[in-house]
Batch of 4 targets.
Target 1
Amino acid sequence: EPTNHLDAESVAWLERYLAEFPGTVVAVTHDRYFLDNVAGWILELDRGAGIPYEGNYSAWLDQKRTRLATEEKQASARQRSLERELEWVRMSPRARQTKSKARIQKYEELATAAEGEKVMQNEIVIPPPARLGNDVVIAKSLKKAYGEKVLFDDLSFSLPRGGIVGIIGPNGAGKTTLFRMIAEKEKADGGSLTIGDTVQLAYLDQTREFNDANTVYKEVSEGNDVIMVGKREMQARAYLAQFNFKGPDQQKKVKDLSGGERNRLHLAKLLKSGGNLLLLDEPTNDLDVDTLRALEEALIGFPGCAVVISHDRWFLDRIATHILAFEGNSETVWFEGSYRDYAEDFKRRKGADADRPHRIAYRKLVHK
């Protein structure tokens, strides 16, 4: 897991370093952008077997889909999810941009369809929330500083009600502080921040607080066999299964969970509330690829607004309709488009300076 908790600038440096490395590299990672850029082979561990694939992550997707098709006579939810991700990989940049804009324009259709949708098994399902009005969150000339450190001094944006906004930038730039301001846990030093009257907030922060003595089942169900998921009743065990807690895993003590399992449990607790504005702070940390893909599918189908802080570039490229970038030196950029579109725009604006690390001067490593 070499990329865990690294910001995009650090990961980009690591990718360049590995490209020039003369030896062999074996990496355990769930970072699909990283895999796509550096891997020549992928070894998948699946149901007790090690299956080698030649190529990067995009090539693995294609080969994996073919293998699943021969194993399963009927298209499973997992296979359909792979198909959709592969379809996205093959889209032209223009087609991806068109799809993102269509999500914003068709908010009403998405909201209506979600109200009649049945909860599917073995997939993360975000319950249909109350409808949003036109005003979600509007920031005008926001300012925030801690002592001499200025995080941002002229931050303006308006969240679209059907949008999925990816927030990127180096650690310590003010991304989590902005979330805390939207959640009314911090105050701005200047400017205005308006929350729409119809907003029902669901905030996944990084604290991940649990009762470690509880089982997974009790932590989510509070001892009830049937729970409310948004406005619907649902069997607690079926709901947990959607987050890949199945059978005996539901009886695990919270204190014994891995980092990825704790993150999945936190998602399960948050998403049952039915908020129509989701603030997700690093939701992908420690998640396996199948759960990442399921979360992507859930967010793409979510009939509300989501704002996501993440260093996972593949995740953001799949889901984001807009990017809010903290570019350093208190500068912020609001960009309509995917992460890949933003990265290309950044290179156009910065030129040769775009690929140069700004916070750290890396010295070239010498191999002996």
Target 2
Amino acid sequence: MVEIDPINQSAVVVSALLWPYKTIVAFEPENRLARRNNWQQQQQQQQQHQQQQQQQQQQQQLRQGGNSNIRERSFVCVDCGKAYAVHRSLWRHLKFECINAKPKFTCDACPYKSPHKWCIENHKKKHHSNVYN
């Protein structure tokens, strides 16, 4: 025998024909999917809320200046204005990357120049492989 549960309208009560004392409560698949989707939406909303709270806390810490994880970029390049948190990074930038970085290595077969030795080696392998092999 199949009846609709009066308390929970989405549930269907199925009575076993052979054993009348045993009842099985079965939920309709549409309602099961709806409940699952509602649960997923609630989880997504909770995650978004937590992310918003974390962002607000980070912004407050930045305003107060109390976040020790974020380093102040106090080393600034005079030529291009790029800032670094560590002096060695600024030194590397000035030596190899900046506008005024002079290429110290040249290709033997063409006028290609680079401040990095590995760039010259890659250039030779790529463009002059027949000359150097």
Target 3
Amino acid sequence: MQSIHAYPRAGKGGNVVQVWVYHAVAKLPSFQELAKMGSDIDHIPDYEKTATGDLKPQAELAEAPRLDKATAVNIVQNPLKRKTPEQAVNDAVSFAETHGLGEHAALFGRAALVARDMDNFGSVTTLQEDERRALEYERDHKWHGPKMLWYSIGLCAIGAATQGWDQTGSNGANLSFPKEFGIDRPYGRDEWIVGLINSIIFLTAGLIGAFIVDPLNHYFGRRGEIFITACCLTATPIGSGFAKSWQGLFAARFIMGIGIGAKNATVPIYSAEMAPHRVRGALVMFWQLWVVAGIFLGFCANVIVKDVPRIAWRLQLGSAFIPSFVLGAGIFFCPESPRWLMKHGRHAEAFKSMCRLRAHDIIGARDFYYSWVIYEEELKEARGAGYFRRLWDCFSVPRIRRANYGASTVMLAQQMCGINIISFYSSTIFVNAGYTDVEALYASLGYGAIQVVATIPTLFLIDTKGRRTLTLATFPLMCIFLLAGGLSLLKQDGSRGERIGPVVLFIYLFTICYSLGEGPVAFQYSAEVFPTIQREQGMAWAVCINNTFAGILSLTFPRMNSVMTPTGAFGFYAGLNLIAWFMIFCFVRETKQLTLEELDQVFSVPTKDFIGHELKVWLPYFIKRHILRKKIPKPPAIIAAIINARNQAFQISFPRRVIAYK
């Protein structure tokens, strides 16, 4: 019997692998075979490589194994578990003493033991009785949290209403402001001007606003950036309401878009960095809930002012300042993001902030110290501190690139699904279907109400069923209902109710499916998948994708509606739903109930391996279990599948899960 120990070379950069191989039989695996199990394996102390690529024993053994940057394949590896309990405590005490937290040194020692194995804190004998009770209560009541946590998350969510309110304000205003400015001809130049006025806020949000997020966050912090954008989004809707020409309206919305882009890229990050990992999905999802609440309130405003002569559209556009005013007035009562403070070396303030957001100091110390440990790991991978260097890392560093694939996919899918042709132009669509202007406003109000109601169940599903599951389940249904709605527009005979009823029904069913899946997932997923050091750049790119394509959609739909007819436009977006489903299947990985830092390990799996596992293992299982209704066992996760395959190939066994991927 032989044993092989593969260790990383000391000081070697990049991801490395550490493998214990026991009971190897027959021929030893080649160097190339071992290399398939990780990356940068170029030094195996027990063996040396021969000219044929095989291994032979060396006389000299290596030092004790060391795993610098290994990451598990879809099984999260806690860096604190690499240390003995004594080492973990000593390191935590040293951290507290060297970062201005000496008075809490003993607390951080106990917190390190809890963070080392969060699910088995009962074995930590040094915990005080009140600390143990607090941890047990947190485990059994995942929604428990201090008032400041709920206030901060809720206030940020209200800020999201600005975007939804503006969408629906312009939705209703589209029926009247073109007449005010003499651009109401349904073809040619006027058609493009109306589309440009509607789309400019999204184009500037994606192409300008998203990319000023990093400097604003760097110099002003999360709260300061949110306050600045809230001021912008309070002033510009009012400016829109006082516009004297379409050029003036265009200018106000141009600036408004910059504020929306900067806000959209920061508020979800701020919420995600404050939320406990067990309910992060639900808490951050308040963003989407308030986006749709803003849509509903905007439709309410449209209905309320519908009978005001001439200035109705001004009130519809101007009323969008209300939620942003509330956001700006309340943001400085919230604590600054603990992770932002930690990133800027203000550890004592960061710990104080974390404790304000947690129910007990032991929970705050555990979450803060664990975040710092992972942040230090991330810094080892950082290639540069410059803005453009970090932005480039979103495309060049494998782990960050895979996160970027997922975030860009869900953001693009939100526009591909066609929901925003309803949000932007539902009143116009309902008028074309046969409703009067007033009836169209009421039908749009129903659309907004359904979005709010259908989003609420997702608060409880997103952290149990998961982000990937919800989107994969709802996109095929959205395709069917959108196509059915488009085909219903072809019916010209029968009573008015028979012609209009099916259109409204299928649009409402489409909206329900969107609200249960893609709607809540897009910004939630994008805010959580990037590492701390790349979070602003990653989210900026995701927001750029989302808003730029929203702008393109808003710009092109009026022309598409007249050239392709509403049925053709609906059919076009129904087809895009299927393409979006395929993209999500390939690139969006599950992130439910993991800490922001543990997601580094989720995205350590190469895309090729991930897609292969989903196609060869999970897709056949899904078809047999849920379509053919066969009672078959659930297949193992990707890590278990990979280990089993390699055990069979190499006839070996692993004493612990330490496979690493580049």
Target 4
Amino acid sequence: MPKPSSVDFSQFFDSLELAQLALIQSSAWRSEVVKLPADVHMEHEIAIGQGAPGSWRATCKYDLQAIPEKGSEAQLKISATYSVLYTAQGELNDDMRSVMAENATLATWPYVRHLVHSTTAEMGLTPLDIGLYKVKFKANNLGDSAEKTPSAQLKKSTSKKKRSSS
């Protein structure tokens, strides 16, 4: 199948709309005793699938674990899955799928941050603030197409340390 021209790419994204964003699954667990500081690890997976004609659904899954610096088992786990529905005219190729995956991540990230912050507060912990999303996008020249970077991949992992606020 021939690769769509840049006109097709442009037309597709001109008609693209985010139609719905919904939390479809969440879970949280903490141990009785949580020792700080801890290493916080976040896994992120995305799947893009065809919906009804002219629609695509991105499923963004986030799994967070906090493991004490001198421990091996998680003391805190938070999991959330969001569904993002897009509508557009045209067909979705691999390049468009990559852009849509990145957009779905950007669209859901503020909700993930809020969920983690509020859930840890409700657990009686110092609310955990995870960072703003860092966009990693690289192009050789303004006219060249962008090169895929780790943030454009469909699965990623981030880590940071959580320190006590005392």
